[in-house]
Specification:
Blueprint (H helix, E strand, L loop, with lengths): L26 H4 L2 H31 L15 E20 L2 E21 L5 E18 L4 E8 L4 E9 L7 E9 L14 E12 L2 E12 L5 E2 L3 E11 L4 E12 L2 E8 L7 E8 L2 E13 L5 E9 L6 E10 L1
Antiparallel strand pairs: 1-2, 1-16, 2-3, 3-4, 3-5, 5-6, 6-7, 7-8, 8-10, 9-12, 10-11, 11-14, 12-13, 14-15, 15-16
Length: 333
């Protein structure tokens, strides 16, 4: 049974320094130009300090770009476009549908996918909408039965999806930040290797806590796969635990454990009945649950205040998990 449906089982400092006011002067002193000059200098100093504070807050926010998939990074009115390219590979022993039933084989899957993500800050700070479009997917699956070998290839658009993230509250004292999200995915990738062939919808809860200079985060979520005529994919419990920190004001690093438990799935194939009835008949096959687990290493580089690059390497920790090499390129408008 092709496993393309599972390959998608697969990141404030704020302070204010109040300037003390000048002592009250006598009426004679107020009439002198010196007092006016002092007031002007005080206003100018406040403006400079406030500007520095805003710059410091923005710099810290940019160094935490790696949290954009966990928190609400985009503010009201902002837009970010992100182009992601990944190479994914997995090799495992599995049962593959063949004419007349299923047979054991060594299955090697390779995917090269390019995804465009658009992030929009709407209504208020703390509310973000994402549009996720796998604009091109190249998929290749080789099944080695020992004596024979078959290869299936597919190219096209993947499953387009979307997400809504809301920052319920921000970190304060010992209380971590709380973010809620809802997500959904279409079946534009069809039922081949480029998509799952089903719609799904889900959501999750994320907690973020800073222990300077490290930011810790964790998420747990659930996804329901709507059954179709040809398949009923298992529902998904997923989790993510990680930490990140800034090496300097331009480079940050994070490591995270991302995993998912995928329930049992069923599908419908065709069995050759040429020798009996002279045609084909449907055959129902099923899989047990799957457990996917990856250790992800990411470095985020601030090229400019609007342009970033983010190389990523993922190591599969279970037989069903993919090894991942990729590059993310976000640009903030």
């Amino acid at each position: 049974m092709p496993k393309s449906r599972y390959h998608r089982a697969l990141l404030l400092f704020s302070s204010f320094l109040a300037l003390s006011g000048l002592p009250l002067a006598s009426s004679a002193e107020k009439a002198q130009p010196k007092s006016s000059s002092n007031e002007t200098q005080t206003v100018t100093a406040k403006e400079v300090e406030e500007s520095r504070q805003r710059e410091a807050e923005e710099t810290k926010r940019l160094t935490e770009l790696f949290l954009r998939n966990q928190s609400v990074f985009i503010r009201k009115g902002e837009v970010m476009l992100e182009l992601n390219t990944f190479y994914n590979r997995n090799s495992r022993q599995d049962f593959v549908p063949v004419v007349g039933g299923v047979a054991p084989a060594r299955v090697t899957s390779r995917f090269i996918d390019t995804t465009l993500i658009a992030r929009f800050g709407i209504l208020t700070d703390g509310l973000e909408v994402d549009l996720i479009a796998p604009v091109y997917v190249h998929a290749e699956q080789t099944s080695d039965f020992g004596a024979t070998q078959t290869t299936t290839k597919d190219d096209g658009v993947g499953d387009i999806g979307g997400a809504l993230r809301y920052q319920v509250w921000y970190e304060r004292g010992i209380r971590p930040s709380l973010v809620l999200d809802v997500e959904s995915k279409s079946r534009t990738g069809d039922a081949g290797l480029t998509g799952t062939g089903t719609w799904n919808a889900g959501g999750g809860v994320t907690l973020i806590k800073t222990i300077d200079p490290v930011v810790f985060f964790g998420r747990v979520g659930y996804t329901y796969n709507f059954p179709s005529q040809s398949r009923d994919l298992g529902n998904i419990w997923d989790y993510r635990l990680g930490m990140g920190f800034s090496l300097n004001d331009r480079v940050s690093f994070n490591i995270q454990l991302a995993g998912a438990y995928i329930g049992p799935s069923t599908g419908v194939g065709l069995s050759d009945t040429t020798g009996t009835t002279g045609g084909t008949a449907p055959i129902v096959f099923s899989t047990s649950h799957l457990e996917v687990m990856n250790l992800l290493f990411t470095t985020t580089v601030l090229v400019t205040k609007k342009f970033f690059i983010e190389p990523l390497v993922g190591v599969g920790l279970t037989e069903q998990s993919f090894t991942i090499i990729g590059l993310r390129v976000p640009y903030r408008f």
